[in-house]
Amino acid sequence: MNIIVRYALQGAAYTVFCAIIYFLSTAPAYNYLEADQAEIKLAFKHASKRLHDCTKLTRAELKKLPPNMRKPKSCPRERAVVQVIIHLDGKMIADEKFVPPGLHQDATVFAYSKLPLPVGDHLLSVHMRDSGRSEGADYIKEEHISITPGQAVVIGFDSVHKELKFTY
Prior knowledge:
Radius of gyration: 27 Å
Order of helices and strands: HEEHEEEEEEEE
Largest sheet: 4 strands, mixed
Strand order of the largest sheet: 6-1-9-10
CATH class of the largest domain: Mainly Beta
Oligomer: single chain
């Protein structure tokens, strides 16, 4: 086959291929949220409090241990479950529990969750418990928010200042 014909056919094939890719990348319209919807995203990384305090071992307890295991303190590694409760206009819309990963449930919790949110003015209240207690909350954040269509409210945790944060 002639080299000019071969290059012309190859150019035509590339043009058709590029046109198909362009069509498929722009034509199917995709709406992530409905026209009157917004979204709450819960996203943070947090190491919860340890469930048990360190205890000092007595001489008798230390003697029972092998020489390479003799540490003056015994510190259990297990951490508390992180619970997040979200209220919107006084009504509970989410109650999420995040168990610490790891062999001994001692690693940092990575929390991520998405919830639909109606557009408008709302009172958003978030309660987070990370200490292992059964009642109450360790951190509370309440704020009046005004949401527009397609907007996302991100609930995060600032581990330096030890507080919940809302980002719009």
